[in-house]
Design brief:
The chain has 335 residues and is an alpha/beta fold. It has helices spanning 12-23, 25-38, 40-45, 51-58, 62-74, 104-110, 113-118, 121-127, 131-136, 140-145, 148-160, 162-166, 189-197, 209-212, 250-263, 285-297, 304-313; strands at residues 49-50, 78-80, 85-88, 179-183, 202-207, 221-225, 238-242, 269-274, 316-322, 328-334. Strand 4 (179-183), helix 13 and strand 5 (202-207) form a beta-alpha-beta unit. The radius of gyration is 22 Å and the shape is globular.
């Protein structure tokens, strides 16, 4: 009988097998995308099933499905009982569409064009420039503006992440605020939630004209189309930047901040919802996302020290930071 090795066993062979697993991990990511897109998650959400029944439910090849499930059972996304019946796990339940903060949208964002850009990640390593431009011929947001169907997918995915991003804002005291300006707010998912929870608030949704054309937030919200490198709507009490600055280099992020500092009154506050990279050598999603921003956009995630420095360069003083699961809230005032 051949000797076998598990990933956790000590020795050179275990390290070899762990490394092979890491090298091939893009297969796992794409397998998760494939079963999610095919509807396997939602089908099993309705109840456990064997491969043949599941394949009929979602309209896929039964043998292929069994092979996909074999990989993803080992990764903890599904369970299989002795009778060959598959079910969701706590991990894969986060992919259900009806779960608050569903990661289904993240799966969709990481596939498609993003996945294609990662095929040229070495370009970003050599040059420090985004590989997306190299693969698709133009910056990602410019490319999306020329492909409305892809822009719609991107906007839906961003809207789907609002629930988790909103968490740090739930503790914010909005009682003295009259007008909140959401900079780069997409189709208005975050602002819509804020206005629904706080009836006294009025909002301004600011983004590119082709983006806000699809937004409908009622008569308490004004839609303003424009470019945040050139102009920012003035006079808001609170300005929100939710996952915007990580799209940009430090120089470009500083330009955005300076525009906001010019537009914001002295009493105003800037609320930045972003990841904060921990100062350690452990694995964190923020460190992976940092590379993703580089490869797609030439942007970056930042440590707390980085945020202090960037905000100061943009005309702000960081008052406090509130950590949360999906995003941290950085509260800043004009410096």
């Amino acid at each position: 009988m051949a000797e076998t090795y598990e990933y956790g066993e000590p020795g050179q062979e275990a390290g070899y097998r762990r490394l092979r697993h890491k090298i091939m991990s893009y297969i796992i990511a794409q397998a998760i995308f494939a079963v999610t897109e095919a509807g396997v998650i939602e089908a099993l959400g309705a109840g456990p099933a064997d491969v043949d029944e599941l394949a009929r439910r979602v309209g896929v090849d039964g043998d292929a499905l069994a092979r996909f499930l074999r990989v993803l059972v080992a990764e903890g996304l599904f369970t299989e009982d002795p009778h060959g019946t598959f079910a969701l796990t706590e991990m894969s339940s986060h992919l259900r569409q009806d779960r608050p903060g569903s990661l289904r949208h993240l799966v969709m964002l990481m596939a498609g064009e993003a996945y294609g850009a990662w095929g040229r990640a070495a370009h970003s390593l050599r040059t420090g420039a985004p590989a997306f431009d190299e693969v698709f011929g133009r910056p990602m947001f410019d490319w999306l503006s020329q492909h409305p169907e892809k822009q719609a997918v991107f906007d839906r995915a961003q809207a789907g992440l609002v629930t988790m991003r909103m968490a740090p804002l739930e503790q914010w005291d909005w009682s003295g605020v009259r007008t909140v300006v959401d900079i780069g707010g997409g189709n208005g998912g975050l602002l819509r939630t804020l206005l629904a929870r706080h009836p006294y608030l009025r909002g301004v949704l600011f983004d590119l004209p082709n983006v806000i054309n699809e937004a409908d937030l009622g008569d308490r919200c004004r839609l303003v189309g424009g470019d945040f490198f050139s102009e920012i709507p003035p006079g808001g009490d609170v300005y929100v930047l939710a996952q915007i600055l990580h799209d940009w280099s430090d120089d470009d992020a500083m330009r955005i901040l300076r525009r906001i500092a010019t537009a914001m009154p002295a009493h105003g506050r800037l609320l930045v919802l972003e990841q904060v990279i921990p100062d350690d050598d452990l694995r964190h999603p923020e460190k992976l996302l940092d590379l993703h921003m580089l490869v797609l956009l030439g942007g970056r995630e930042r440590t707390l020290a980085d945020w202090h420095e960037l905000l100061a360069a943009g005309g702000f003083e960081l008052l406090r930071t509130e950590r949360a699961t999906r995003s941290s809230l950085l509260v800043a005032a004009r410096g």
